[in-house]
Write a sequence for this structure.
């Protein structure tokens, strides 16, 4: 592999090429990004007397050309809106899109 043309830039993006992603490992659930330091929660989904945490299914990926890695969100219709997880007991369920 010739790394002179294909390498990641200092900002973490692929430089001089379009990335070719390859999945690494198993998909996993991660918390949704926080807003102003607050945990992303569902206001309408409750369990154990608390609002449930918003989670997304992601897959670690690497670029075949330069080796750059990223966590890519899986665009699976079942996980379109994410998954609600109870922070107390771990109970979870998929949150469906409105109208389903």
């Amino acid at each position: 592999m010739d790394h002179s043309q294909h390498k990641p830039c200092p900002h973490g993006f692929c430089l001089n090429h379009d990335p070719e992603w390859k999945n690494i490992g198993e998909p996993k659930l991660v918390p949704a990004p926080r807003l102003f330091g607050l945990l992303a929660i569902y206001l309408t989904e409750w369990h154990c007397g608390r609002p449930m945490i918003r989670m997304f299914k992601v897959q670690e990926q690497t670029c075949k050309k330069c080796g750059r890695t990223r966590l890519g969100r899986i665009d699976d219709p079942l996980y379109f809106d994410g998954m609600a997880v109870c922070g107390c007991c771990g109970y979870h369920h998929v949150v469906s899109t409105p109208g389903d």
Summary: The chain has one domain: 7-94. The beta strands are 7-8, 14-15, 21-31, 41-47, 50-63, 69-73, 83-85, 92-94. The longest strand covers residues 50-63. Residues 7-94 form one domain.
